[in-house]
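W.,

You were right to be curious about this one. When I first looked at the sequence I had no strong expectations either way, so I just let the prediction run and decided to look at it fresh. Below is the sequence, 169 residues in total, followed by the output.
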Amino acid sequence: MTTQLEHTNTNFSEKQFPITIICDHITSAANIGAIFRLADAFGVEKVIFVGNEPVFTRRMEKTARATHKTIPFEHLTEENDCIEFLKKEKYTIIALEITNNSTSINNLKISNKNKTAIIIGNENYGVSKNLLSIANHTTHIEMFGKNSSMNLAQATAICLYEVTNNYQL
């Protein structure tokens, strides 16, 4: 008989990957909370909020399920400070965005020897042109319905799954 395990008795091994999530002007409390929770689930090193400082509302904290207390994060007001940091630290930069030259995430191949930054964009406007311009890879998720986008947190989960798989090869 199969029984559902409690959170405290799973066999998951804790891992951390050299991945940083860059949140480009993210505003939704639910998305901010989900990003923290995903960062924890996928062993992300840290989260950087660019532009908008995360507001720790009840909605955000409920969605994050306390992961905002354990995932390192910082806030950078200016995009140029973020760009300077990513270049200085020699990140492989992935922008999660549909563009005229983005490639399917199914084809994303990155070195598991480098640090990776995943840039996710504002819920309405996507990744800024400034941040898109520094990306080593611009990738999108293939969609098969009529809609051309999905929720930011869902897309981030799919991207993190693919990127962490690259690190486990």
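Here's what jumped out at me. The chain has a mean pLDDT of 93. And, maybe more interesting for your project: The radius of gyration is 16 Å.

Coffee later to discuss?

I.
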